[in-house]
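Subject: Sanity check before I submit

Could someone independently write out the C-alpha cells for this chain? I want to compare against mine line by line before I put it in a report. The sequence has 222 residues.
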Amino acid sequence: MQLLPFYMVCDESGSMAGPEGVGTINAALPDLHHEISTNPSVADKTRFALIGFSTQATVLQPLADLSELTQLPALSAGGVTSFGAVFRLLKDTIEQDVTALKAEGHDVYRPVVFFLSDGIPTDDGWQAALKDLNSFRYAPKIIAFGISDADAATITEVANFKAFLQRDQSVSPALALREFASSLTRSIVSSATSMAAQGGDGFQLQVDEQVPGFTSLSLDKL
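---
Independent answer below. Compare away.
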C-alpha cells in the first residue's frame, strides 16, 4: 500500500490547561477520528499518531489506521515547554514507524507533522534537536501553528512547509484550536483523496493556504 503518515504534535504545557486549551483539542478529536475512520479511501492511505509535549514528550497514540481505533486518547496539561524533547522524540518515532511500514512492504510518503504551541520554548537545546530532525533520512514536512503567546519567529523556524500564527486576541484560543484541528483533518482527507486519484504519480501534500483566525507566515523571512 501507499501510505502517508501524519503526526499531530500538541503543546501540553501548563498554559494549555483548561477548556480553552487542551480541552478544546480533546473535544475536536472525536470529529477528526470520525471524519477519517469512516472514509475507507482516506483511512487506507493514511496513518495517524498523536504526540503531546511539555517538560517531556510522549507518544499518546502510536501511528495507526484510524479505522482500527474506537477513539483517540486525551491530552492533559502541566509542566513547561520543551521543544527539544518533542523534536528528539519525533525523530526516533518517525524512524521506527517508517522503517516498520517499509518492512511490511508499504510505499511510504514523507511524514507530515502538524505542530501546535501556545508559547515559547523553555529549553536551550531545541534548535539542535530541530536540525537533527530536519536532516535525517525520513525528515518530515512540518506545518507549525502558534496561538496565544507564541512567537512568530519561533513558529517560522519550526516550520519547513507552512506556518500560521493566531491573528489577534479577538480570536479566542478555543476557536483557534478548533480551526487547527479542522485544518489537520482537511489536509488528511484531501491529501489521501489526491493520492488515490493520482495513483501515487505526482502526489502533492494538500494543506490550507489560509486558516480562519490565523495569519500565514512567510518562511523566507530571516
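---
OP: Matches mine. For the report I'm noting this point. The chain has one domain: 2-217.
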